[in-house]
Specification:
GO molecular function, one term: metal ion binding
Mean pLDDT: 80
Shape: globular
Number of strands: 18
Structural class: alpha+beta
Strand content: 15-25%
Largest sheet: 7 strands, antiparallel
Number of helices: 9
Helix content: 25-40%
Low-confidence stretches: 54-63, 162-179, 181-205, 237-258
Keywords: Hydrolase, Metal-binding, Protein phosphatase
CATH architecture of the largest domain: 4-Layer Sandwich
Membrane topology: Peripheral membrane protein
Order of helices and strands: HHEEEEHHEEEHHEEEEEHEEEEEHHE
Subcellular location: Membrane
Family: Belongs to the PP2C family.
Distance between the termini: 44 Å
């Protein structure tokens, strides 16, 4: 009904515009003066909304929001093995297009045969980068793990990693241990005390082969995307990747003098986890690049295994400014250069990685992941990997509560995943002030 009403109003508006244009011919007087002013005012309002409407929401998507309500049809899959049970659920929601993609590889070859791979990629500016990453990441991970296994010393590892970076500069992954949260999930640069047996704070690269493989793979994936984007552009195939959003149009003008790449303004976050399937001492290693999130349920408490990479964080803002950028509050969120991304790490987005005099980890936006490893305990119940759309209306603790309540009520892991994405989608964007209007994708791994 809403879609029909919108179509009628749209067609009526187009008709009035045609009448208004006919009136421009001498001798034509088809409208009352008040009616003319109304048409002009409506046209100005439409233009303003098209240009700046996307800035009122925390993220912008190609095509904007859907008309007539959210698309709640879900794509849900599940599986089990080696003491793990998992489910993935994807829902388009209010967005005009689905830009999320997920990846599950329950079985990996050596040297990661004892690990299971789970990943959520949240695309922006288009779905190309997220979908490519979801298909190619397991292959890239395998190549990187083999290279690391075959390395004889640290120097060999560094040189191999350098070959995989976008500009030949070796990148070391930063990492810190997870923190437990209750209620508010706001990020702080202050050290977090030891809670629920998980100690927070900075640390050197951790996770052994798993952590190093994930770190190298994220950078290699970004380099692969850069090469692919250059190839698509040089062959004239990037017509499939054109952006229609107002921010995309503005950005194309700003990047006119930079090297063209099909993925200059198309990117994706990445939250990836390797879960140990073997018995005895088990671990989960998480690589985070962007503002998707990994949350562990430990005896009912939310333990965040990732930190949202936002431009306003002290370290992120410092790097952005040193790269010649700025961070400005636009509407409800901070954006790079005032008009750009509201996250500071991502795959793709090569417009923000265009300084040839800076290394890969010094650009405005980087693909360097944070690596965090935690040993699994007997009271660890499940792990949630989800895009930021699942956290617009909920804190990390609330997400855990939703999933835990569903499982306690006897629902399957698939049903719990569907319950989470359902509750993450706003029933009314006006009442929630735009929050809950994103794509929603989540993976639940029951331990």
């Amino acid at each position: 009904m809403g879609q029909l009403l919108w179509s009628i109003l749209r067609d009526l508006y187009v008709f009035l515009i045609v009448v208004f244009l006919i009136e421009r011919f001498p001798g034509s007087d088809l409208m009352h003066d008040v009616f003319r002013k109304t048409v002009i005012a409506a046209t100005i309002a439409v233009v303003i909304w098209k240009l700046f409407g996307g800035m009122l929401f925390e993220t912008s998507s190609v095509g904007g929001a859907r008309v007539g309500g959210p698309l709640r049809q879900k794509k849900t899959e599940g599986g089990n093995g080696h003491g793990l049970e998992w489910a993935v659920c994807e829902m388009q929601g209010w967005r005009a297009a689905m830009e999320d993609a997920t990846c599950i590889a329950a079985t990996l070859p050596e040297p990661l045969a004892h690990q299971a791979l789970f990943a959520v990629f949240d695309g922006h500016g288009g779905s190309q980068v997220s979908h490519i990453a979801s298909k190619e990441f397991p292959k890239v991970l395998q190549v990187c793990a083999n290279k690391l296994r075959d390395s004889s010393d640290e120097d060999d590892t560094s040189s191999q990693q350098a070959e995989l970076t976008a500009n030949g500069s070796p990148v070391a992954a930063s990492s810190s241990k997870p923190r437990a949260v209750e209620g508010d999930s706001a990020i702080s640069d202050e050290p977090v005390p030891k809670t629920n047996g998980v100690e927070a704070g900075s640390a050197k690269e951790e996770g052994g082969l798993s952590g190093k493989s994930l770190s190298m793979s994220m950078i290699a994936m970004d380099a692969f995307l850069r090469q692919l984007g250059n190839g698509l552009n040089s062959k004239g195939k990037n017509s499939l990747l054109q952006l229609s959003s107002p921010l995309g149009i503005m950005a194309r003008h700003l990047e006119a003098n930079s090297q063209r790449n099909a993925f200059n303004l198309v990117g994706s976050t990445a939250i990836v986890a390797l879960v140990d399937k073997t018995g005895g001492k088990r671990t989960v290693t998480v690589a985070n690049c962007g503002d998707s999130r990994a949350v562990l349920c430990r005896n009912g408490k939310a333990v965040e295994l990732s930190e949202d990479h936002k431009p306003e964080l002290n370290g992120e803002e410092r790097r952005i400014r040193q790269a010649g950028g700025s961070v400005k509050l636009i509407g409800p969120c901070h954006r790079i250069d005032g008009w750009g991304l509201n996250l500071s790490r991502a795959l793709g987005d090569f417009h923000y990685k265009a300084r040839p005099d800076l290394s890969a980890e010094q650009q405005k936006v980087i693909a360097v992941p944070e690596i965090r490893t935690v040993e699994l305990h007997d009271d660890d119940e499940f792990l949630v990997l989800a895009c930021d759309g699942c956290f617009e209306l909920h804190t990390s603790q609330k997400v855990v509560d939703i999933v835990r309540a569903a499982l306690k009520a006897g629902q399957s892991v698939k049903q719990a995943a569907e319950e989470l994405v359902d509750q993450s989608c706003s029933p009314n964007l006006v009442k929630t002030r735009g929050k809950g209007g994103d794509n929603c994708s989540a993976i639940i791994i029951k331990l």
